[in-house]
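Annotated sample (chain length 699).
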Amino acid sequence: MFAAMKWLPRILVLTAALLVGLHASAQAIGTKTLVQTEQVRAELTAEQTAVAPGESVWVALSLTMKPGWHTYWQTPGDAGAAPNIRWNLPEGVTAGPIQWPAPTRILTSGFMSFGYNDHMVMLTELKVAPTAAPATINLQADSTWFVCAEVCIPQDGSFSMPIKIGTAVPMNTAAGAAIAAARAQLPQAAPWPVSFTRKGKVLELTAGPDLGADQFSEVAFFPVEEGLLANAEPQTPALENKTLRLAMTAGATVPANVSGVLVLGSGETRKGYTVAAAVTGTATDAPKEPASAAVAMPMVLALVFAFLGGIVLNVMPCVLPVLVMKAMSFMSRGTTDAGALRRDGLAYTAGVMVTFGALVGVLLALRAAGGAVGWGFQLQSPIFVAGLAYVMLALGLNLSGVFNVGGNFGMGQELASRGGAVGSFFTGLLAVVVATPCTAPFMGAAIGFALTQSPLEAILIFEALALGLAAPYLLISFVPGIARKLPRPGVWMDRVKQVLAFPLYAAAAWLVWVLAQQLDAIALANALAGLILVGFVGWLFGTAQKSSGKGRTVALATAVLAFAATVALTATLAARPEGQATGQSAGLSEPYTAARLEALRAEGRPVFVNFTAAWCITCKVNEKIALSKTDVEEAFKRGNVAYLKGDWTNRNAEISAALEAVGRDGVPLYLYYAPKATAPVILPQVLTPATVISTITGG
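Output written by the structure step:
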């Protein structure tokens, strides 16, 4: 026992020496195949542990990402950057290009990227020269990649792996099988003819015949060339007789020759095919439009559809109150003067048809000038929509009895009684104005046909629509029997009048909803203020009607001032269309440097810092929807806020240090330094104009 104990120190020394030797050998060979970050597990593997001279070995760098994170293909699309591998290889070993698996389309806030969710494998073929001597060599590689979710983080890793040059040995069980499976999934050369044809803005890919299936669950084309496609636009496939036609929207740059990967199928059946072909056609070629039912419609049928659509338009919520008011004016006046009724009916019809004629004339003129307008085109103007909402509200208030124009039955009777035929004419005009937000059955086909015909034919179809709208009232005025069957005047008419106010209120509410889609928050607030002022004007007018002397004068004068304020507010709406941007980030920003930040803070100026990158989708979205808004720009100017932009598209040690100083490792990052503040305010990664403004104003 004591003899064994005597040898124990020597055994320990020999063991330590052996461990040190093994460690030194490992260090000399330089084995490091795994890099782990919070978001990504990156691993370098080889298909074989040994390769014979003159042969090749496949190696793989795989990126396994946390759920919700993605990286990019060789052409990243609208944003992003492709991963890369830089090899440091011994003499006699060369690396081929990265072999990319078929990517997927990744849509983020309107930007389309091409890449991989959760997992991807980059394959590289390493070739050993025939003259290479047997030895154990070290494969070394440096790689960078971008991993993105709500933020984009550039990451990197250095890898090394020993491999023997000598007699080839069978593949590794796990790594070799995985690489073999990845190689089998690489895009293959298309086995059928492929061509590209440009027809104006449409770039069409044709593949086939003999695609081998009548339909595919997924069809997508991924171009190698940057700028070839408007990436976020849909790709529309049509498969017939095993020939595929894929319509895509051409981008800013369409070269003479196009290459890329066509992906067909999904899941286990998903396959990628490499395609390349010359582009025929030009940007000036017009795509052939398929014949539609409207284009093929006979003129007589279009006129009938238009007339029927006009009749149905009478019962739409926009028009029905006006028609009923006109009918009530008949009842209140009685039916003894048949001639007067007929004159009213003709004048009302003339008002409808003249207004429709003017409307279609403006519409056709705008289309001839290149405008993409159609039925209800005037509703694209916020001023018109707001004005129509105000008219609807005023009509409703009138029917509810807040104020009174023209006796018991409101504005409709006032128009009808003012000079008889003149009043009826303007009632017809009002009916057309309130009808423009509505579309009735039969109208769509007729209007679609009208806008493809000559101006004369278009006018005829619209006038048929106008005649249909006027037909019920015209029928009542020319058929005495119908007029005699109308109910006699009575108290019930006042109740009906009040009920009719609510469809008008509903129409006003709908028009406000339309404004909400057209305007930013400030302009919408102005429109709502105008709506309140219209109600105030109506109440003042009603008060004046019930007052006399000085009280009546004050009420009317105040109503005039309130009406003028309404007009002034409405006039501002055209200056605030949705999406208006003046490019603040380009016009007011200056490049970020730590020295410039310190100099501005020493001056006592507030500073807003935007750390961004060209490959960061969230950054682009924030700059578009928040930082480039006019109200944000004005807030910067009012507060004398300096705007620094740190562009991290390429590596920048100064920006990296700034990110690290606040505990961040990726962009976007937004910092606001208030005067005399010891630390910055960190804004959310998803911005709104209100968030930015409230931060810099302290609201």
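Annotation: The chain has four domains: 29-185, 189-282, 299-379+408-496, 584-697.
Annotation: The two ends are 84 Å apart (CA to CA).
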